[in-house]
Design goal:
- By secondary structure, the chain is α+β, with helices and mostly antiparallel strands.
- It is about 50% helix and about 10% strand.
- It has a four-stranded mixed sheet with strand order 2-1-4-3, sandwiched between helices.
- Strand 3 and strand 4 form a beta hairpin.
- Helix 2 packs parallel to helix 4 and helix 7 crosses helix 8.
């Protein structure tokens, strides 16, 4: 299945969606050994499986994906830590470009979404399985912080992306009363400040995940 052609939309940006997924999955397992043998990642647009899991676990992943879509969820990707200790991730729908980073290359935007979902799986407090006593907003703060720490470590200038993200989520919450679960501006603003005084590029993957948790613990706007 790894040879399935990407949708035409992705071809226009000159890269293979399947290649992006394969590279991402290999790095995720290398960075976080707890994923080894337990990471099932399925892509709907390419009908391809990635990660590091057996056929039984991949079937469970597809089942979780179908339940996710059946609930009316329209997010382009999702992740969950399964009760049996599996780490499940899916690229669910080919929805086109998001409204937050229209100027970025599409390949970069895909990787940004994937890092966000990985944050839910590997960072403390990133999933319902590890965030007992915290809100959905807290989990989103953890995942967003993890995303931008990873971007920084990949040589990206996070200032523009954080500014756009915080502006859109704040405007959405204040003007439309929507998307409050994804209001992560206070955490990202502190990460932006911290990046000016500390060299975060050399944090290990686990240290990066722990930092994302600490930032959310101190600055997430809604905790419970």
């Amino acid at each position: 299945m790894d040879d399935a052609p990407p949708p035409d939309e992705y071809k226009a940006d000159g890269f293979s969606l399947t290649d992006v997924f394969n590279t991402f999955a290999r790095k995720a397992v290398a960075d976080f050994p707890q994923l080894k043998g337990k990471f099932a990642f399925y892509s709907v647009p390419t009908d391809s499986s990635h990660g590091d899991a057996n056929e039984h676990d991949e079937a469970m992943m597809i089942g979780a994906l179908k339940r996710f879509i059946a609930k009316g969820n329209t997010a382009p990707a999702f992740a969950e830590v399964h009760a049996q200790g599996l780490y499940l991730m899916a690229w669910a729908q080919n929805q086109g470009r998001s409204h937050t980073r229209l100027s970025d290359p599409l390949a970069f935007e895909v990787r940004t979404v994937l890092d966000h979902e990985l944050g839910h799986l590997v960072a403390p407090g990133g999933s319902s399985a590890t965030a007992a006593g915290h809100t959905v907003n807290f989990r989103e703060c953890v995942a967003d912080a993890f995303t931008f720490i990873r971007q920084l470590q990949q040589g990206q200038d996070i200032n523009a992306s954080i500014s756009i993200t915080t502006h859109i989520t704040a405007r959405s919450m204040l003007m439309q009363g929507a998307d409050s679960e994804h209001y992560t501006a206070p955490v990202l603003t502190e990460l932006q400040r911290l990046a000016t005084t500390e060299d975060l590029k050399y944090l290990s993957p686990v240290q990066s995940a722990n930092l994302a948790y600490r930032l959310a613990l101190l600055y997430a706007p809604a905790q419970g």
